[in-house]
Amino acid sequence: MNLVSIRLITEDVARLVGFYERVTGATASWGNENFAELAIGPATLAIASTRTVPLFAPGAAEAGANRSAIVEFLVEDVDGLYAELSGQVEGFVNAPTTMPWGNRSLILRDPDGNLVNLFTPVTPAARAKFGR
């Protein structure tokens, strides 16, 4: 089994895609106005409109309702990225902070309120875990 993608459901696909393109530097591949994907490393972040939810099951997903998941991205330099994104994106939850498990993390919210963690491993154990 392989985890291939995470899909976020939103009322405004273009707005959310624009946010993730700015944050990740990836360019979205659009299927149509209701669906886009950003290939980031070995995984894909898919962004779909609420209009696609009935294709799975009516009411199965609700845009902007998440308060339990964090979308995480391994980055080369979280402090540099923080400086670059400051003034370009809103919703910073914290400035880069070194976590007890050895990652330096920047937490922000995307325009729909989903938590996003941009992190760089900084301790020897954390760097080894991610092959750095």
**Care to count the β-strands?**
8
Q: What is the overall shape?
A: globular
Question: SSE order in H/E notation?
Answer: EHEEEHEHEEEH
Amino-to-carboxy terminus distance: 25 Å
Mean pLDDT: 95
Might you state the CATH topology name of the largest domain?
Answer: 2,3-Dihydroxybiphenyl 1,2-Dioxygenase, domain 1
CATH class identity of the largest domain: Alpha Beta
The helicity comes to 10-25%
Query: Count the helices. How many?
Result: 4
User: Which CATH architecture of the largest domain is right?
Assistant: Roll
| Portion in beta strands | 25-35%
For the report, how would you describe the main beta sheet?
A: 4 strands, mixed
Unreliable residue stretches = none
The H-level CATH homologous superfamily of the largest domain, spelled out, is 2,3-Dihydroxybiphenyl 1,2-Dioxygenase, domain 1
Please state the CA-atom Rg, rounded to the nearest Å: 15 Å
Secondary structural class: alpha/beta
Spatial strand order of the main sheet: 1-4-3-2
What is the count of distinct domains?
Answer: 2
